[in-house]
Write a structure and sequence with these properties.
elongated; alpha/beta; single chain; 420 residues; 5-stranded parallel β-sheet; 50% helix
Length: 420
């Protein structure tokens, strides 16, 4: 299943309580996972202090969302003037440096304006004839809006990586990343920043879509299970064994007829007659290949990549297409032409038209693969890890796939040829 992006919300809680709740609701409605310490689903380790549990939880995040307001919040290290929000940011930034998460910083517009006003005030005070103590008292005056404007201004400078950027500009070194700061006045501003990051998350509609896909897969599977004594039976092993015991070699394919044990032919043809008139519908399967259902989020590239389940879905769609094209009355006519009614029950071998038998073997290959892939995807949609099943080769001719694969240009080879 598609792995959901995980967001960690970092901020002082009390002045952002409503906004944090709105962000959590919005991201989760887009199918994302949101870690916010004030909610019961945070899942921190009860054996740890809440501060340490928060810092540890950052390891689960793909995105660290930092909200900066007018409050300092609780101190993580009061003697060094490090707040818990600041320590969360520093922990996240180290993981960002390792390429393990992305940082999204949002600051209230009025806080940003306060910082700019304090910078302007600082420049003005520097020109006045006053002592350093008087200058600092004037610069750090408290207000109803911010009780520790200096801390907040310094924190914003740290987030913006101002010192590192200045040093890199002077020396020509590498400039820091993760230093974007988005200003917001309303929730719409926050939504516009976060929405692109959660675009492909699993929504309630997509969860329902997954159930629709599972239902169609079960319907497809049911077309290939044969009910005996009221019990559905899976004949994949029988088909595998028959083809392994009566293989058509590469040299045989040029012969007009192929000799096969009459009893084995009768058993095989009796099973294969169940394919008659069983054209498969793949409406949801065909649509699902264009969805994000079996994509996974790559935190390094910030994009979605194909999983083995996605590859299996694409393979299943191809197998169904080939089955529908080949399982028609003309190709299945060999079953009736060489039925006991027409040829009796001869002992020893019966000689069958090689080309028609090859087509029938190919239909049997498609049968096995469609059942195997459908079962694997059905189980995966129940929440289990996906396991790619063992599949029959494309060609019904024994050991022919290696020759065919040499002539087929793969998707990766096509990408290389295009230089992408």
């Amino acid at each position: 299943m598609a792995k959901r992006p995980t967001f960690f919300l970092s901020s002082t809680i009390y002045d952002f309580q409503d906004l944090r709740g709105a962000i959590k609701f919005t991201l989760e409605s887009r199918g994302c996972r949101v870690l916010a310490s004030e909610f019961n689903d945070f899942g921190g380790n009860l054996e740890q202090h809440s501060y340490e549990a928060c810092l540890k939880s950052i390891e689960q995040a793909d995105y660290f969302v930092l909200l900066v307001g007018s409050r300092v919040g609780g101190w993580y290290d009061e003697s060094s003037r490090v707040s818990i929000t600041q320590q969360e940011y520093r922990t996240a930034y180290e993981r960002h440096r390792q390429g393990l998460l992305k940082i999204v910083t949002l600051v209230r517009s009025e806080v940003w304006q306060m910082r700019e006003d304090r910078k302007a005030l600082s420049r003005h005070l520097a020109q006045l004839d006053m002592s350093e103590t008087e200058r600092k008292m004037a610069q750090d005056y408290p207000s109803k809006f911010a009780t520790d404007a200096t801390f907040i201004s310094e924190f914003l400078a740290e987030i913006g990586r101002n010192l590192e950027t200045g040093q890199a500009v002077k020396t020509g070194g590498v400039k820091p990343t993760g230093n974007w700061i988005h200003r917001f006045s309303s929730f719409r501003d926050v939504h516009d920043v976060l929405n692109p990051l959660s675009f492909s998350g699993r929504t309630a509609d997509e969860a329902a879509y997954a159930k629709a896909l599972q239902h169609e897969l079960l319907t497809v599977l049911g077309r290939f299970l044969i009910k005996i004594d009221e019990t559905p039976r899976d004949y994949r092993q029988f088909l595998r064994e028959h083809i392994a015991n009566c293989p058509i070699e590469r040299t045989d394919r040029f012969d007009d007829t192929f000799a096969i044990d009459a009893k084995k032919w009768q058993s095989f043809s009796t099973v294969m007659i169940h394919t008659l008139g069983r054209k498969l519908n793949a409406v949801v399967i065909n649509d699902a290949i264009k969805s994000s259902l079996f994509l996974t989020y790559d935190r390094v590239s910030g994009s979605y990549t194909q999983t083995s389940a996605y590859e299996a879905l694409a393979k299943l769609l191809d197998e169904i297409r080939m089955y529908n094209e080949s399982a028609n009355a003309e190709n299945l006519s060999i079953i009736f032409e060489f039925s006991p009614k027409n040829i009796g029950r001869p002992k020893g071998n019966v000689r069958l038209p090689t080309m028609k038998l090859l087509i029938l073997y190919g239909i049997a290959h498609r049968w096995v693969n469609i059942v195997s892939l459908s079962m694997a995807l059905i189980v995966h949609l129940e929440g289990r890890d996906f396991e790619m099943p063992e599949l029959m080769p494309f060609s019904p001719v024994k050991d022919m796939d290696d020759e065919i694969s040499k002539e087929v240009v793969t998707a990766s080879e096509a990408r290389t040829a295009l230089g992408i």
